[in-house]
């Protein structure tokens, strides 16, 4: 499948692995794919993101991703569902961070040992890559571009899709911007 990726899409995948490495994450996640898309310039996805989530709104988007990471990747819907069961995620996060330090639930704290080799992709990140192929096929495009990765991120559910939607980046909005 990777041979069908455009240069821009390959750069996003490579950038995602670099974001994971810089953050000390063991695996590449959909969040890393989004961060790599946000780094891009002069591509179809960058143009769409520029229209829908201009530079002045990006810190808010990144803060929302960081907040979700602190909650161990739970979406707002997950947090609300647990609250309905009487589970206060905020209180749990506070207790864990009190005992183990800030960001203990983030899952991307640096390991004390040395790690070398390629970062693997999480099941969710692989799902985004597969979904980008389906999006490209549905749009009758021959290659998978970074715009297909962005469209896939908006439809896979979870924290990244939720944060994007909160910032006006939905499948319909991206499709229109493209």
UniProtKB/TrEMBL annotation:
Q: Would I find Protease among this entry's keywords?
A: yes
Give the GO molecular function terms. peptidase activity
In this chain the Clp R domain maps to: 2-178
| GO BP annotation list | proteolysis
Tell me the keywords, alphabetical order.
Hydrolase, Protease, Repeat
* Pfam families (alphabetical): Clp_N
| UniProt xrefs under PROSITE patterns | CLP_R
Specify whether Lipid biosynthesis is a keyword of the entry.
no
What is the designated name of this protein?
Clp protease N-terminal domain-containing protein
> Whose protein is this, by species?
Streptomyces roseolus
């Amino acid at each position: 499948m990777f041979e069908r990726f455009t240069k821009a899409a390959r750069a996003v995948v490579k950038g995602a692995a670099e974001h994971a490495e810089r953050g000390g994450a063991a695996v590449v996640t959909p969040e890393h794919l989004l961060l790599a898309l946000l780094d891009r310039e002069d591509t179809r996805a960058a143009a769409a993101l520029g229209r829908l989530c201009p530079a002045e709104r990006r810190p808010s988007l990144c803060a929302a991703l960081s907040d979700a990471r602190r909650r161990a990747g739970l979406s707002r819907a997950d947090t609300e569902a647990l609250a309905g069961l009487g589970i206060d995620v905020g209180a749990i996060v506070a207790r864990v961070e009190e005992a183990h330090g800030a960001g203990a639930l983030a899952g991307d704290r640096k390991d004390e040992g040395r790690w070398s080799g390629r970062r693997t992709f999480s099941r969710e990140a692989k799902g985004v890559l597969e979904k980008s192929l389906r999006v490209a096929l549905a749009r009758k495009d021959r290659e998978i571009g970074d715009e297909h990765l962005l469209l896939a991120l908006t439809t896979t559910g979870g924290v990244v899709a939720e944060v994007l939607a909160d910032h006006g980046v939905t499948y319909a909005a991206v499709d229109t911007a493209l």
